């Protein structure tokens, strides 16, 4: 694995580090971040805690560029950001990524997300441990992100094949 | 937006739904999930809270298939899962996705992640509001996921361009 130099400490020096928050950040094509925020409010009941924007830079630009909107959802924070055409998108090359949302009422949660503009994918199934939950459904949002709607996690343990 | 039928309620019926947890789930090529879990422990100090596995299905298969490993990190939970070659990967078509980790010591956090096998990308810069933080660095992990290492969030507000 290639290693680059970092300031104030090379790879050999391993410091104690503590982290105060973990926030998934979802990029959407500018200027759709404001719409995406509205979708996450309608679909999942997210609450907006703040928004950092650039002011309008063109007279004909209807929506300001959203650097970051901060949404509170299920005790966590997610960030939603506009990505401009001329900016370098963040290259995530991971195999796959979803957001698991736990709820007591999987069907109602899916229905609400669909009514807000999401698309249900497949049937609600008994989970295979993917979320450590019992029942799992899937919703793709209008911005391309996949949400697993799961019944609350059980204690993880060895599953029988 | 196409809408599919869901059981127990059509799109018109919008129920009150509450969510109890949000957990980002990272898929990695099987059988690397166990390695990825080790990386997130070494790089970020994640603590494993549980793991659901299929037992070995072949005598020559050294590592069990990880359906889901649950990691506690910065007060949140992330899930790490093996994706088998023959399974349908979750198709996330979003514009870009990163995980923001907040810490008081951005440089030390990056150094630690690099020493664990991550790759620092670019310099630590004064944030443009992406995480609502002051200073931001970037680390790509060996499984393709990008982590922003940020100083703690300030109150989000309108930024001047």
From TrEMBL, chains A, B:
One Pfam family hit: At5g48480-like_C
The protein's name: VOC domain-containing protein
Which domain of life, per UniProt?
Eukaryota
Q: Which residues form the VOC domain?
A: 21-152
Q: CDD domains, alphabetically?
A: VOC_like
């Amino acid at each position: 694995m290639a290693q680059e130099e970092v300031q104030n400490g090379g790879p050999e020096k391993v410091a104690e580090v503590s982290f105060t928050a973990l926030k998934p950040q979802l990029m959407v094509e500018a200027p759709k971040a404001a719409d995406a925020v509205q979708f996450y409010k309608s679909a999942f009941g997210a609450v907006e805690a703040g928004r950092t924007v650039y002011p309008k830079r063109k007279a004909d630009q209807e929506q300001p560029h959203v650097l970051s909107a901060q949404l509170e959802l299920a005790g966590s924070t997610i960030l939603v950001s506009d990505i401009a055409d001329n900016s370098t998108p963040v290259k995530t090359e991971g195999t796959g990524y979803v957001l698991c949302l736990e709820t007591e009422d999987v069907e109602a949660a899916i229905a609400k997300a669909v009514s807000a503009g999401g698309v249900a994918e497949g049937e609600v199934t008994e989970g295979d441990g993917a979320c450590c939950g019992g029942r799992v459904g899937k919703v793709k949002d209008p911005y391309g992100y996949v949400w697993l709607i799961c019944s609350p996690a059980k204690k993880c343990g060895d599953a029988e094949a």
